[in-house]
Amino acid sequence: MKINIAYPQTGLQKLIEIDDEKKLQNLYERRMAQEIDGGILGDEWKGYVMRISGGNDKQGFPMMQGVLTNTRVRLLLSKGSCHYRPRRKGERKRASVRGCIVSHDLSVLNLVITKKGDAEVAGVTDGDAPRRLGPKRANKIRSLFNLTKDDDVRKYVIARTFTNKAGKETKKSPNIQRLVTPLTLQRKRARNSAKKASVVQSAKDAADYKKVVAKRMAEQKEARRSAISKRRSSRKSKKEASA
């Protein structure tokens, strides 16, 4: 079985292969998120405490937290489930996953060091693997450098140096996202003023419409009244003529 050991503080990880069944016996029937003593893997890991973070079986199916079995099962996965990303709204899919209990069927077991031991381990604790890219969002840059709102974030962008195809060293820095500039504030004021103008115009149009409706209603009422008076006068004249 292969054991992948990661150390988050340095960003390094190491893959070792253990064929000794006596060492692997100490890992069997353990569950994900449980901590183990690193000394069971060898003398170089004495004093280390590791957490089981997952693993894959020989066919590539991953372990899933909360599935209390050491075999492979088929579960109906929906949005929010591990190892599944729905393509459509409300979509669910039945997929094969492995339980969270370690067994001999695993091909790779992932461990994360939570406590460092006394001795350094080559390739895990003795080096450093810095992040390739720095933060891009303005507030995350502020939190990284403890900046205030008055400080200029653009001066603290982490640029990456690399060699281009022509063989020259160049720098590339990310475009800061969610950066508040005078132009963005101007656009915000323009949007707010447009909303206010729209509200005023809508109220004016509604008032004009009510005036037109009231005028039309008055005209129709007057037309009905005149028509009724004409009919009454004509009936009266007919009665007088017959008399």
Short synopsis of the structure:
It comes from Triparma verrucosa. By secondary structure, the chain is α+β, with helices and mostly antiparallel strands. Helices cover 30% and strands 22% of the residues.
The low-confidence runs, each spanning 5 or more residues with pLDDT under 50, are none
Output the number of helix runs: 3
Q: Strand count, sense and closure of the main sheet?
A: 5 strands, mixed
Output mean pLDDT.
93
Number of strands: 9
How widely separated are the two ends?
Answer: 124 Å
Trace the largest sheet across and list its strands.
2-1-7-4-3
Q: Structural class of the secondary elements?
A: alpha+beta
Task: State the helicity in percent bands.
Answer: 25-40%
Q: How large is the radius of gyration?
A: 38 Å
Order of helices and strands: EEHEEEEEHEEH
Global shape: elongated
| Share of residues in strands | 15-25%
What do you see in this structure?
With about 240 residues, the chain is an alpha+beta fold. Helix content is about 30%, strand content about 20%. It has three helices and nine strands, in the order ββαβββββαββα. It has a five-stranded mixed sheet with strand order 2-1-7-4-3, with no helix packed on it. It is elongated, with a radius of gyration of 38 Å.
